[in-house]
Amino acid sequence: MLPTPVLPDAVADVLADTRTLARCAAGVSAGGPATAEERAAWLTGLRLVIDAAEAAFTSVLANFDANGDGEVLHAAASTQSWLRGALGMASGEASERVRIARTTGDLLAAPVAALVAEPHGSHSAGGASETNGHLSYEHLRTIHRTARALPPSARPAGVEVLAGLGSQLGIDDLRSAGRHLRHVVDPDGSARHAEEDFGRRWLSLAPMLDGMHSIDGVLDAETAAGLSAALAPFLVPNGPDDTRTSDQRRADGLAEVVAAAVRSGELPALFGATTAMQVEVELATLTGERSHPARIPGTTGSAVWLTSDAASRLACDASVRRLLVDPNGIPLDLGREVRVFTPAQRRALATRDGGCRFPGCNRPSVHTDAHHLVPWARGGQSDLVNGLLLCRHHHRAVHEGGWQIRPDSSNEGANGALHFQGPAGQQFVSPLLAARLPGARAAPGP
Description:
This protein is mainly alpha-helical. The chain has 17 helices and 13 strands. The strands form six sheets. The chain has a three-stranded antiparallel sheet, with no helix packed on it. The protein has a two-stranded antiparallel ribbon with strand order 1-2. 20% of the residues are buried.
């Protein structure tokens, strides 16, 4: 790294004050007597300090680059290389900083000057800081990236519009406004960019060492919007006991969307067969005599193994085919595939339950599995008395999470109220859909 030059007095004074400020902030972050409002004021003020410094840095860098100061001082090949050598910046950051400084120097002279100056109305009569009219470095970067995508003749006017909007909008909203501006100013270019973006789409599903799978990819805007809309209902917690993170709820939502799509029967056929997940499991595992894992041949190149509890859960609402094998595992006979719950029974369950029967859950029937009170592999019948709908999250809670379901009446079974008991002793009652409608009397508690 190049030697540090003697700092200007103004910068040295601000640096000393900033170090004092950092010590004071450390006291606040250590859990001092500050209130929530005071901590919020600290964050607001510190953000203003950072943004003002970033704006000043960008403004000075524009002049530094325009005059070739890096080459004059240290024979640097470029301003980017000077930033890497003198300030230790990474290559990507140094290049982006210079590009933004050049754009602001040519097109954003007034906004940069406003950034360096104190924002209008930054102090009220009471001394409280406000952020009205304030532009941050992220605003500046967003304006630069949008301007770069516009036709050269439209850049000055576009920058002026975005600079005015930036003082009123957050970063996400400014980016959205920039995309809208591109569509309005250059519709042909926007269409071309959309096609280019669509060509960049990709999605990978890769197995990990522990059996989990990693999903990674890039989606075009239209597909991402559709996926976000499909997952939005699942981001709402099921109730006060739903401790899942938003990312976990999103993953569970994706699983339910996939299950609903497979169950619909509208997906393309593969090798002449409808799309389905095949699970191979021993009958003794389903009856509870053994706890051997189940196997999913899958299409990922290697088998996926499931616990016996997971296999029992999947078997609740599936098509079943008997496969007899000899002691060496050689198939001897393949029986006819039959549904555990027929489509007609599924429709009847949907009419009766209206969706997931777990108390407080509002998942619709399309995102549920048919669960057996008494497992069918242990003699339980696939009928309305022995069946109920549970969403995937609560179906897992029953099979793998220790929750138990007990009917209020052995004769009525699932046609009557159901008692849910959790592993920690939680107890809830789930009446029938008719009893849950507005105006109906609630079922008595346990």
